[in-house]
Each structure stands twice: as C-alpha cells, then as structure tokens.
Design goal:
alpha/beta
Length: 164
C-alpha cells in the first residue's frame, strides 16, 4: 500500500485504467461542486502544491498491458478531472499545442480510455463526454448522464472565457 502526496500526473501513469466499481454511486456532482472545482483552479498559485483530496485505489487484475485500478474513494473528483482535462486539451490543441502525450496520460492511451464509469453510463460517457456526439441530450437515460453532460457543458463555457 502506498500513501502520501503524489502528483496527479504520476497517478495517471500511462498504462493505468481507472475503474469505478459496481458498488459505487453514479456521478453525482452538481453545479455547486463543479463551480468549486473551477474556483479552486482559478485561485491556485502555480508555485504551490494543490491538495486534490484523498483518493483510495485498489489494484485489480491486469488486462493485457493495462493495470486496472478500482477507485474506492475519490471517483467524483477523478471523473470531473477526466472531463475537464479532455476539454482543456481540446482547447490547447486548437491553438496548435501538441498535447498528444498529455492526452495519453489523462484521457486515452492508445485505444483505451483512462476512466471507466459505471457500466450503465459507460457508453454515454464515451460517446458524449470523451468524444463529441452531435445530439447528446437525446441519449440521456439516467440522472448521472445528465450530470456528466452538465459538467462538460459548464467546463466548455468556463474554458471559452479564459485565455490559453
């Protein structure tokens, strides 16, 4: 067992896939928590470490070359971070930045997405959050899918307001 502070980039080591186990609740963050997340980023000094919160992980079996890591605690934060990073990297890419290595770290390594949400939300998460489906509203089947899309839309608006 490892404990102590760790950089988020170390946590998302290239061949790790984070999995939300069946016993976890679905994505639950509402606008207040999302705005707090953005506010924390806005107020974070670049020269200081940022405390992301406690995250509890359990290593499972491997799938091919990938280590499967169950998220025991911290899945709301890690899911939010995955959504935010995907959109931030898209914005940076539009300005000509090469973000391929960072994308492999946080969003998708080769053909594998770095985060697996609960099974009943996984298809929506891939198609509408990590990829861009033209009509995501029509695919919403659960309250958690609505909240995932709400997070994506809020982050899109917030990132549009900010310079690179």
């Amino acid at each position: 067992m490892e404990n102590g502070q760790k950089a988020i980039s170390d946590l998302f080591e290239s061949r790790r896939i984070f999995n939300i186990p069946k016993y976890q609740r679905a994505y639950a963050w509402e606008i207040k928590q999302l705005r707090d997340f953005i506010s924390d980023l806005d107020n974070q000094a670049l020269s200081k470490d940022y405390f992301f919160g406690t995250i509890l992980l359990q290593v499972r079996e491997s799938e091919g070359h990938f280590k499967i890591i169950d998220i025991v605690d911290g899945q709301q934060r890690l899911t939010t971070l995955a959504i935010f990073m995907r959109l931030l990297l898209d914005k940076l890419e539009c300005f000509g930045d090469d973000v391929s290595i960072i994308r492999e770290t946080y969003v998708q390594y080769r053909n594998e997405y770095k985060l697996r949400v609960l099974e009943y939300d996984q298809g929506f998460f891939r198609q509408c959050i990590l990829e861009d489906n033209d009509n995501p509203e029509s695919l919403i089947e659960t309250p958690s899918q609505r909240r995932l899309l709400q997070a994506k839309n809020l982050f899109l608006k917030e990132l549009q307001k900010r310079p690179v």
